[in-house]
Amino acid sequence: MNEVGWNHNMAIKKLGVIAATLLILCLAQMAVAQDEDNPRTYMLEVGTSYYVYTPNTPTAQSMYAAFMLSRPYIDSWRFDVGFEDRYNEEAVSYGVVYTRFFKHSWRAWLGYGSGNSDVLSPDYRASIGVGKGIFSGFNLDVGYTRIQSRVANYADMYSIGYTWYLGNHIITGGGYHYDVGHPGNTVSQSVDLGISVGVWRQFYIGGGVRFGDVSYQLVPNSGQNLQVDYSEDSFFLSLSLYLKQDLGINLRVDSSENDFNNIHGFTMSVFKEW
Known about the structure:
By secondary structure, the chain is mostly beta strands. The protein is 9% helix and 67% strand.
């Protein structure tokens, strides 16, 4: 059995750093005078995940926190910090996304992230995208992401997706992803579909599937590239439940299967809005 151990003391220290960082951001933003015509809204989410890989039964564990602030129909910021322990490697990562809303249902966003691990986190991850409401309840998004590892690998990732609000209680969505990996100009493709049903600020129950092919080249220290190709299918089930008007929990289970592993995971988070 190759199981990653969980260092509770280290985890508590990392979670403390995450909480302190988000608290500082929260207090700094609250100190700025509110614009009465465009009041800000805030959300803080803290969560944890646990995944099991079979047949070799390693495990992956993570904790994360996200802080979001927005001015409805004007702009929004999202800050993420996380700690992950997987395959005998630990990583602290961070990310930020800024979204700006424009007239005629247009919006655009920029994102950036990085981390301190040679394996689990990229040297950098930069993204850009645009979206537009096509007709009532139907939104279309297109995006580009560049991921650079700390060795020679990097990837150009293109995506197109939609979200469709069907009445007051049903939301559907889906997307197509086309990734080009370097070196080797390898191509990975996937399609995902999802649906959720619920009542606004009470609960949402959802699920989705993704299926596709993955291809990339490893660049070991020997300098001889190793091609990796496999197919992967996955699904998830989720529940968002409001305990109060501004407080709730998210629960999610994931399962995926490829040529090397079966991966089963569980994620739980608590969120607070104000």
